[in-house]
Each structure stands twice: as structure tokens, then as C-alpha cells.
Design brief:
Oligomer: single chain
Structural class: alpha/beta
Strand content: 15-25%
Radius of gyration: 19 Å
Shape: globular
Order of helices and strands: EEHEHEEEEHEHHEHHEEHEEEHEE
Number of domains: 2
Largest sheet: 7 strands, parallel
Length: about 300
């Protein structure tokens, strides 16, 4: 999808569609609700078939576009002009477009009945990433234990892949304890120069990330949306924000989700989050929008 509405990416690319739930954060999966229940394009779960998409040519087209970023306000776009259309400043710098892969699947899902087919798709994806050096690829997974086995290193392919970034979804402390150590292992066990990032969405509890933040390049946080959404507490979000500030790690707060963090009950009574809808709840935390990004320039390797 070109020019995605996801706050932390410029484009979304889905090499295939379909997945299986693995933890509590998957309980009300938006991708399942949309692609399986609403549009009935695929069947979710271990019994469903993963369907390869027909959009593999899109990243090749995005790779040809010149992208710019305003270092003053953060505006991004492929209109290469002198002055930023958002703030009017002339602080535009060339950059790479960010591609979220995959919003409707998990690239590292192991599906025994389609293992050979999906391994071929993964090889195709690595080749695509290699031939699109003007794109920053963001691969987000709930299955980091499979990354090392399925992503070939430089000695095997000759590919540097400095434009690939790996992230894990962590909705609570249990999943952080399980997934983040496997993610940071990539820096020591694989010839990998990209960025590691975390997506704490949907945020379902307090998370202490401090022990890993020296190896993490970006943290994204968001509350849950949808008809069955669970509220995110303001102290959970503040806690991660404060940890990121202390470690000087970029922090992006995506949304509150369906529930407002503003107290609707009088002081002295138990706090009850008020369901107001995603748009009304917004994404303001302590009086500001937290839109911090790691900044990469054309020609720079990630550190």
C-alpha cells in the first residue's frame, strides 16, 4: 500500500496474507477481522492457506522515487522541493522511504504444510530487499526465534542488506522477556548492520525495557483499537516513554486506541477509562505528540 496511514511507515508491503495467533496481543487481530472475517479473502489460523499477493512490483516503483525528510518538523514525502510544505523550512534532506512488511502476515511464521512454498517466498523477499536499496525495510514479527534460520547472512548471498531492520511486537512483560532477548541476539550472531526496534502495540501492561534499550534503535507504543479493544493505562505509556528518554532512544506514541486516558471519574474514585473511539482519543501524551524517529540518510549504514 502506497502512502500508508500507519504513523511510523511511508508504505506497507504484504508479500502474502494470513497468520496464526500466538499470544494475547493477537486476541483481537485487526488483520484477521479485516481479511478473514470481513472480506473473507483468507482463512486465519493453522488450517488456513497463506495467499501470496500480486503487489510485488510496488516496492520496485517506490525504490525509484526520491524521498525527502524535513529535519525541522519531520515531514516526509517524495515531492523533492526546496521548502517543506508542512513548516516552510528549507531543512529538507534526502532519505529512504520506510516500508512496513508485513501488516497482514508474519514473515517468520512457520507453517509446516506450506514450509517449502513460504521458504521460497522468503528468499524472494530477501532478493527484493537487496534490489531496493533506496527503501528502509521494517520487518516486524512475533516469532524472532525463526529469524536466524530463515534470513541468509552475507557469506551465503553476498548481500549486505543494510536497509533491513528487524522488530518484535511485545504487548506485556511476559512477551518482552521472551522475544526481546532473541531479537538482540541478531547483533552478535549475524552480520547485521540494520536497526532493531520494538512495537508495544497493543500495549496490555507495564513493561520494563531498560535492560535492552542500549541495543534498540526505536520504540513504538500504541493502545488497542477495534470493537473489542482493551484500554491502555497512561502510566504504562509514560513508563516506556521515560525509559526511552533516559536511554536516548527515539519514542513514537501511535495512538491511545478506543479509550481516552483523561479521567472521567472524580478524584478519589477508581479510575475508569472512557471509551470515546480511536479518533477522539487521539495520540497526545502529556500535552504533546511523540513522533520521534531514527533518522537515516541516503548513503549511511545503520548503527
Amino acid at each position: 500500500m502506497e502512502n500508508t496511514n500507519i504513523e511510523w511507515a511511508d508504505h506497507t508491503f504484504n508479500p502474502w496474507v494470513g497468520c496464526t495467533k500466538v499470544s494475547d496481543g493477537c486476541k483481537y487481530c485487526y488483520a484477521e477481522n479485516m481479511m478473514s472475517k470481513r472480506f473473507k479473502k483468507v482463512q486465519w489460523g493453522p488450517g488456513g492457506t497463506r495467499i501470496r499477493t500480486k503487489t510485488w512490483g510496488e516496492p520496485l516503483r517506490w525504490n525509484k522515487q526520491e524521498w525527502a525528510e524535513c529535519t525541522h518538523c519531520g515531514w516526509r514525502g517524495h515531492e523533492f522541493i526546496v521548502y517543506c510544505p508542512s513548516c516552510g523550512d528549507n531543512s529538507l534532506q534526502p532519505t529512504r522511504a520506510r516500508v512496513f512488511c508485513a501488516s497482514l502476515a508474519d514473515v517468520f511464521e512457520d507453517k509446516p504444510d506450506q514450509r517449502m512454498e513460504m521458504n521460497n517466498w522468503r528468499r524472494n523477499l530477501i532478493e527484493l530487499i537487496h534490489i531496493t536499496p533506496n527503501l528502509d525495510w521494517l520487518l516486524l514479527t512475533k516469532r524472532p526465534e525463526n529469524i536466524l534460520g530463515w534470513i541468509p547472512n552475507k557469506r551465503m548471498t553476498g548481500y549486505t542488506l543494510s536497509n533491513i531492520n528487524f522488530g518484535v511486537s511485545v504487548e506485556d512483560q511476559e512477551q518482552a522477556n521472551e522475544r526481546v532477548p532473541l531479537l538482540v541476539e541478531l547483533k552478535t550472531m549475524w552480520e547485521f548492520t540494520g536497526m532493531l526496534f520494538l512495537s508495544c502495540e497493543p500495549l496490555l501492561g507495564m513493561i520494563d525495557l531498560s535492560r535492552w534499550l542500549t541495543q534498540i534503535g526505536w520504540v513504538i507504543v500504541g493502545g488497542e483499537s477495534g470493537p473489542n479493544a482493551r484500554p491502555a493505562k497512561i502510566e504504562w505509556v509514560r513508563g516506556i516513554r521515560d525509559q526511552c528518554q533516559a536511554a536516548e532512544v527515539p519514542f513514537l506514541f501511535k495512538q491511545w486506541g478506543e479509550y481516552s486516558p483523561i479521567r472521567a471519574t472524580p478524584i478519589g474514585f477508581p479510575f475508569e477509562p472512557q471509551r470515546v473511539g480511536k479518533k477522539a482519543a487521539g495520540r497526545v501524551l502529556d500535552g504533546q505528540i511523540w513522533n520521534q524517529f531514527p533518522i537515516f540518510r541516503i548513503g549511511e549504514n545503520h548503527v
